[in-house]
Structure formats: C-alpha cells, structure tokens
Write a structure and sequence with these properties.
The chain is an alpha/beta fold. Helix content is 41%, strand content 23%. The chain has a seven-stranded mixed β-sheet, sandwiched between helices. Helix 4 (55-62) links the parallel strand 1 and strand 2 (66-70). The protein is globular, with a radius of gyration of 18 Å.
C-alpha cells in the first residue's frame, strides 16, 4: 500500500475538476444495491469510504441514507464538505477505519477499493458493520465492447506505458479474493449505461485519472499534446462534438 499512497492522493491536485468532470452512476445502481443487501437505503447508517468529492455520497444521501464520508485527501475532503455541508466527513482510509465497531448498516467503496490492502480493509469493514450489514464495492469501467473505446484504450496505454489507462479498473469487483477472505458469498452484477458529454468534458474526465495526475508538472506538455491529438481522433468519431461515454458498472456486494 505504501507505494500507492502518493498516487491515491494525487486527486487532491484536481479536486474541483474531478467533481465537475467525473461521471456519476445510473439510477439502477442503488436499486441493485438495495436488492442485493436486502434492505432499503433510506435510514441506513452508511459509510462511504474513499468518498472523494462525494459523487456517490450525494446519491446515497439523496436516497435517504444517513451517510458518513471517509476520505484521506484534504483537497477531495474539502470539495466534498463544500458541496455537501450537512454530511459528516472523517479523514481516514479503508485500511484503518476511524469508526466504532458494529456502527454501520452499509459500507460503500465507489471507485476506491483498489486503493486499499484487502487483507486489512476487509476485516476493518467487517468490524464496523453490524450483523446483517453489507459491504458494497463498485467501479465505472469503460465499455470495451465499443470499438472507439478499444481504440482510445490502446492509445492511452501507448502514452501512459505498460497496462496503465484512464478507463477504470476492470475486474475490480472480482469475487475470488473477497470470497476467500470473508468465507462467504459475494454477489456481483454488471450494469451498462452511458452519458453524452462534450469533447472538452470527456478530455477533462480523462485528465482527472491518477495515471495522468502523477505525471505532474513535468508531464504537462506531453499530456497537452496527447489531449490535442485525442481531440482529433474523437472528432472523426463524433463530428457533432458530443461524445457518448459508454460504461459498465462492476458491482459487488458482500453481506456480513
């Protein structure tokens, strides 16, 4: 975990852009969370870990959940507090939750579980959950059944190197490790959805991913050149200037 901490905290430098540019989630996501956990969100004591700027926190709050946000980054936590002033924000991370034992009905990780050490984070989640409570993990991952997404992914990997991308973390909700660690069942669902945004908004979304943010000031010129080239590629696919971003939400739920 120690090697990934700087990368996990790289979002602080782009908190406002992250809040403005990152996609949300389809309405059926929280419907499915309720289905798999077997209880309504309304009134549920919920902890949103790695809450970032509050994209998922806001949706949970709107559904009536009694949410506490946990976020390690001061910039991200500050942005969340500014836009959701009535939601408590606690500084911390999933490897050591600053919360009382058996105090939560639901713990959520939206785009955040991959920043934890599961061998530490899962026992912590189970400690904080009440009997019958649930852990829900989900990720927005670009839909690789779409040809332009595949082409962009190849360009991203060529630029960023290795297996890096800015298309999400496919396979993040893989049940094998969590089922083994927990000794119980881990239910999974895939939810396809899309949103239409301008080319500028799509490029801003890409720029908020850690693979770009860790490049810092030294990488600004090359990143700007990559984004200019990407604008040309997108213009050929979306001549009207509107990009249809296609996603698969990978959801996993473990009931204690």
């Amino acid at each position: 975990m120690s090697a990934s901490v700087p990368r996990a905290l790289s979002f602080d430098s782009a908190a406002a852009l992250y809040a403005a540019s990152r996609p949300g989630y389809p309405p059926e996501l929280l419907d499915t969370v309720e289905e798999l956990t077997g209880r309504p969100l309304s009134g549920a004591r919920t902890v949103d870990v790695g809450a970032g700027t509050g994209i998922a926190t806001r949706l949970l709050h709107a559904r009536g959940a009694r949410v506490t946000a946990v976020e390690p980054g001061p910039g991200m936590a500050g942005e969340l507090g500014r836009t959701l002033p009535t939601v408590p924000v606690v500084r911390g991370d999933g490897n050591r939750l600053p919360l009382a034992t058996a105090s939560a009905d639901l713990i959520t990780y939206a785009q955040a579980w991959h920043w934890t050490d599961p061998d530490r984070a899962l026992p912590e989640a189970l400690r904080v959950l009440r009997p019958g409570g649930a852990l829900a993990l989900w990720w927005n991952v670009s839909d690789y059944s779409v040809p332009w997404v595949v082409d962009q992914g190849e360009r991203l990997r060529r630029y960023l190197g290795g297996g890096d991308s800015a298309h999400g973390t496919p396979g993040g909700a893989d049940s094998r490790n969590l089922t083994q660690l927990s000794g119980g069942g881990f239910a999974q669902r895939l939810l396809r959805w899309s949103r239409a945004v301008s080319v500028d908004a799509h490029l801003a979304n890409l720029a908020t991913h850690s693979a770009f943010l860790v490049l810092g000031a030294a990488g600004e010129r090359s990143t700007r050149r990559f984004m200019d080239q990407e604008r040309g590629h997108l213009a050929a696919v979306f001549p009207d200037g509107t990009v249809e971003e296609r996603y698969v939400v990978e959801l996993g739920v473990l009931v204690r």
